[in-house]
Amino acid sequence: MTALTLSNLAATAVPADAVVIGLAKGESGPVIAPGSPAAAAVDAAFDGGLAAALSTLGAKGDEEEITKLPAPEGLPVPLVVAVGLGAAPESGADYRAETLRRAAGAAARALAGSEHAAFALPVGGVAGIAPVAEGALLGAYAFTAFRGRDFSGADSGPLSRVTLLDADAGDEAHAVAAERALVLAEEVARARDLVNTPPNALNPADFAALVETAAAEYGVETQVLDEEQLIAGGYGGLLGVGQGSAAPPRLVRVGYAPDPEGAPTLALVGKGITYDSGGISLKPAGHNETMKCDMSGAAAVFATVLAAARLGLRVNVTGWLALAENMPSGSAVRPGDVLTMYSGKTVEVLNTDAEGRLVMADALTRACEESPDALVDVATLTGAMVLALGKRTFGVLGNDDAFRDLVHETAGQAGEQSWPLPMPAELAEGLKSPVADLANVGERMGGGLSAGLFLKEFVADGVRWAHLDIAGPAFNEGGPFGYTPKGGTGSAVRTLVRLAERAAGGELAG
Question: How far apart are CA 442 and CA 459, in angstroms?
Answer without folding.
Answer: 19
